[in-house]
Write a structure and sequence with these properties.
The complex is a heterodimer of chains A (109) and B (115). With 109 residues, chain A is mostly beta strands. Chain A contains no helices and 9 strands. In chain A, a hairpin with a 5-residue loop joins strand 6 and strand 7. Chain B has 115 residues and is an all-beta fold. Chain B is 0% helix and 50% strand. In chain B, strands 2, 4, 5, 6, 9, 10 and 11 form a 7-stranded mixed beta sheet that branches. Chain B has a 4-stranded antiparallel beta sheet with strand order 1-3-8-7, with no helix packed on it. In chain B, 36% of the residues are buried. The chains are: A mainly beta (109), B mainly beta (115). The interface between A and B is medium-sized, with 21 and 28 residues.
């Protein structure tokens, strides 16, 4: 079973930051938080992952709360091409990835 | 270009007619996996392989077979397809499952319809 809870859908205005929340209140100390996205019916695409420090790459930023029970994926300047389903996954190394239903982000013009 | 390829991309077949969906990766990855995606059910893992000749069942293995004779290929076999196997199938690979930074690369998907 997925260990995360995400809102089923969100809207964001084009050019604004998209902040996608994820709740993982039962996360254990050695489990990482991963984010993937799936544009339309394409294969999911890796975005970012982290353990407890905030992370940033060319695609997004990941903010993990100090107690690690929740996190936020930030797309700083959302474009129409960011419209997708975003999956938050909690995983220990060595485990398979388990995808939940994710959040359907709609970026609106 | 690093990629995971799947063939065919679209397939319409009839009940009981054996079929194989091929998956190939050019990244020398040890780990490969098959998922199916159905509306409202998300991505569910069918089978996975940690390395050559090592395969294991995922969450929904019934009705499927796999083999891993070579590192780069991981075909999905439906010996006797049924309509409930109509789905969108994805193959994925990663360097291994052990590393925290070993993220998965997904293929483009195969849309299968079983009549």
């Amino acid at each position: 079973d997925a260990k995360t809870t995400q809102p089923p859908s969100m809207d964001c205005a084009e050019g604004r930051a998209a902040n996608l929340p994820c709740n993982h209140s039962t996360i254990s100390g050695n489990e990482y938080v991963y984010w993937y996205r799936q544009i339309h019916s394409q294969g999911p695409q890796y975005i970012i992952h982290g353990l407890k420090n905030n992370e940033t790459n060319e695609m997004a930023s990941l903010i993990i709360t100090e107690d690690r029970k929740s996190s936020t994926l930030i797309l700083p300047h959302a474009t129409l091409r960011d419209t997708a389903v975003y999956y938050c996954i909690v995983r220990h190394y060595g485990q398979n990835f388990v995808f939940g239903p994710g959040t359907r982000l709609s970026v609106l013009p | 270009e690093a990629q995971v390829t799947q063939n065919p991309r679209y397939l319409i077949t009839v009940t009981g007619k054996k079929l194989t969906v091929t998956c190939s990766q050019n990244m020398n990855h040890e780990y490969m996996s098959w998922y199916r995606q159905d509306p409202g059910l998300g991505l569910r893992q069918i089978y996975y392989s940690m390395n050559v000749e090592v395969t294991d069942k995922g969450d929904v293995p019934e009705g499927y077979k796999v083999s891993r004779k070579e590192k780069r290929n991981f075909p999905l076999i439906l010996e006797s397809p049924s309509p409930n196997q109509t789905s969108l199938y994805f193959c994925a690979s990663s360097r291994s499952l052990a590393g925290v930074s070993d993220t998965q690369y997904f293929g483009p998907g195969t849309r299968l319809t079983v009549l």
